[in-house]
Amino acid sequence: MISRYTLPEMADLLSDDARYRTWARVEVLATEAQVQLGRVPAAALDDIRRAPAPSARRVADLERERDHEILAFLAAYCEGIPEDSARWVHLGMTSYDLVDTAWGYTLSRATDLLLEAADRLRVVLTRRAVEHWGTVCIGRTHGVHAEPTTFGHKLASFAFAVDRGARRLRAARAEVAVGTISGSVGTYALIDPFVERYVCGELGLGVEPAPSQVVARDRHAQLVQAVATLGACVEQIAVELRLLQRTEVREVEEPRSIAYQGSSAMPHKRNPTTCERLSGLARILRGYVGATLEDVALWHERDLAHSPVERVALPDALAVGHYQLTAAADLVERLTVFPERMRAAVGQTNGLVYSSVVLAELLEQGVEREKAYRMVQAAANRTTETGEDFRSALSGEGFDPGPLDPQRFFTHHDVILDRLESL
Description:
Blueprint: H1 8-14, H2 16-36, H3 42-50, H4 56-66, H5 69-78, H6 83-86, H7 95-131, E1 136-141, E2 144-150, H8 151-176, E3 178-179, H9 193-203, E4 206-207, H10 218-244, E5 252-253, H11 273-294, H12 306-333, E6 336-337, H13 339-346, H14 355-364, H15 369-386, H16 390-396, H17 414-421
Parallel strand pairs: 3-4
Antiparallel strand pairs: 1-2, 5-6
Helix pairs in contact: 1-7, 2-3, 2-7, 2-9, 4-5, 7-8, 7-12, 8-10, 10-11, 10-12, 11-12, 14-15, 15-16
């Protein structure tokens, strides 16, 4: 994980020390189950419970001797357990019973952090959409002025996108929150299935229904795809706000710190760096989708090709996704909006944005569609070429549309507001 894009609560959850604490917890829970089955003496459980989780530094030292992280962890963990009790640690288990069950617990908790951040972003977008529901601005298609809309409408579309992304992420959380304690090749040959049920139940996890020694990696791929899709929704917000900050537009401005400096050479610069950063992080997230999809197809019951990929891809994707969502919520919450510049942009084309209204009026008056279209288009071309007001150009074509006001576009607009307020 890159510390620059990892928030403290995620760093704490995904650190090496946190991983070994979770592994130790799994070992304690497995021993509790074995005690209930009568396979391990209760006195050994007391010793195992008292043992501290080993530090990442100690595990790394032992791994240099053993070239096997799980064996190094077990050796480090058992240093704090009397020998007669230490022999009961990891009874009947294989390495990935420990690793994957701990992964399920950690990934579900990390996903909860993303869901909290996504919910906050949705709430902020909704609140600001309601605030600016009547803030008229120009809608653009293909980058070209189209018809009036409102800034609140823009934000509402983003709120619904984030809500859909959060629902996908919740579904992925349910799939990834599983564990397995089923032994080598997943047949429960040396361990009672009760141990798996007990451990996973205590950790709030489901169980892999047909384990192959490991949890199926399509679960992890689904999680990263959901994170990346949500990241793309954030990028959509960032791209729009970035475009609206261009000098010739300047309808919004992202928040700046007191210490903000936009350029080392040009002191006047006020660059949309937060939006640009959010776009870049979305690219990283999409890159990890391919990597985790590659991990789905393992050789036979398992191989280890997935391990180096997910050591990087899973923590990074979760950390980046969490950072991106949090930064996006901060951006929208503190975004400065310039309604007067938005309204000015509506009139920038001298009335051309009302062409659809004029066309509709002509059709309602019984003018044949092709003729009506050509009449309006001729007036529009005249306005474009000469700068003449569109109403005046229409009069030259023999039609007076009456006053042209943006409110003519919003007759049924509040149906969307009703949907937003029920989100």
